[in-house]
Amino acid sequence: SVQFVKKQWYQRRVRVTNNLRQMSVIRSCASQKLQYCQVLTRCKSTKIKEGPGLDYFITSSIDKQVKKERKRLPRWLQTEIPQGKNYSRLKNDLRSLNLSTVCEEARCPNIGECWGGGDTNTATATIMLMGDECTRGCRFCSVKTSKNPGPLDPLEPYNTAKAIGSWGVNYIVLTSVDRDDISDGGASHLAECVKELKIQVPELLVEVLSPDFRGDLDAVDCLASSGLDVFAHNLETVNRLQAFVRDPRANYKQSMEVLIKAKESSPSVLTKTSLMLGLGETDEEIVQTMEDLRRNSVDVVTFGQYMQPTKRHLKVKEYVTPEKFKHWEELGMEMGFAYVASGPLVRSSYKAGEFYIKNIIEKQRGAVSE
């Protein structure tokens, strides 16, 4: 029994010794960790003290040190915050009828001026049909994308006509997302919207900014023959930059064929397209594009400055000056376009009513005086 007691005592002593050793190791690790934290804190404090001060961040020279900084917005592109009674009324009506506008989805800088009517009180609105999700992903556009957008709203033609009829606008632009998930790309739906508008507001001028319907010319014919006044489809940029700027399913040749077919389907309808400048195009490429448009009897062309909507989209290569835009306007009129809208803030549907109506009135007055 004495040997048994000695054995137990010895085993207990070994356990106590091991526990003490473990505690010693733990204390040593904790001490080392504390020392490391103290050293790290001193290093951080030293870096902060030796680092740049407030002057470094507010000095203008910092712009030169940031290589990938976005180009500063020139003064001629700065716009006022949208406001006004007409702007608020249009916005509330759109929400109540579940309608979208490209003005909002594409973050257009002219929304306040167009919806408010500007100095001439010629209000212009651009309704975006067939939902707010596009099946394509162009690198310049901020509209949401989806492979499978929701189904079309069968009440959209009626709701659109009802809303527009209550606004008292003179000119309406209908546009839409691309719907490659629908057999005809939504052409029949857009045509129904135009027909419903003409029934409820016969005097209204209707422009449709159309998709390319994947090059389906029967779909183009369906829309062009619906009773609209202006068939618009945007080339967006010059031929060389198409693959870089637009979705792979869109291209220069296909867009040009859409415009040709629209004119063939309804010769009395004005055809129109728009180009963004500042993406890296050359003057020679712009002239070539204008010549191609005139050769294919396109009536109206607009030029506007590309503006990067978010950091995920294409960067601006150049901010084109107002003087240069004026040059393209004058050249376009010399080349025989019925009308050219060209300016830094011009968009495909920017002040469309004012530009279109003013141009038509001037032509009518000129014909009477002759």
Mean pLDDT: 79
Number of strands: 10
Measured by DSSP, the beta-strand proportion falls in 5-15%
Compute the separation of the termini in Å: 137 Å
CA radius of gyration is: 32 Å
N-to-C SSE string, H for helix and E for strand: HHHHEHHEEEHEHEHEHHEHEHEH
Taking pLDDT < 50 over at least 5 consecutive residues as the criterion, the unreliable ranges are: 56-68
Helix content: 40-55%
Main sheet strand line-up = 1-2-5-6-7-8-9-10
Largest beta-sheet details: 8 strands, mixed
From the spread of the alpha carbons, the general shape counts as elongated
Structural notes for this entry:
- With about 375 residues, the chain is of the alpha/beta class.
- Helices cover about 50% and strands about 10% of the residues.
- Strand 9 (about 300-305), helix 13 and strand 10 form a beta-alpha-beta unit.
- The model is unreliable at about 55-70 (pLDDT under 50).
Topology of this structure?
Blueprint: H1 2-50, H2 54-58, H3 62-65, H4 85-96, E1 100-101, H5 102-105, H6 111-116, E2 124-129, E3 133-134, E4 144-145, H7 156-167, E5 171-176, H8 187-200, E6 205-209, H9 217-224, E7 230-232, H10 242-245, H11 252-265, E8 270-277, H12 283-295, E9 300-305, H13 322-335, E10 339-342, H14 352-369
Parallel strand pairs: 2-5, 3-4, 5-6, 6-7, 7-8, 8-9, 9-10
Antiparallel strand pairs: 1-2
Helix pairs in contact: 7-8, 8-9, 9-11
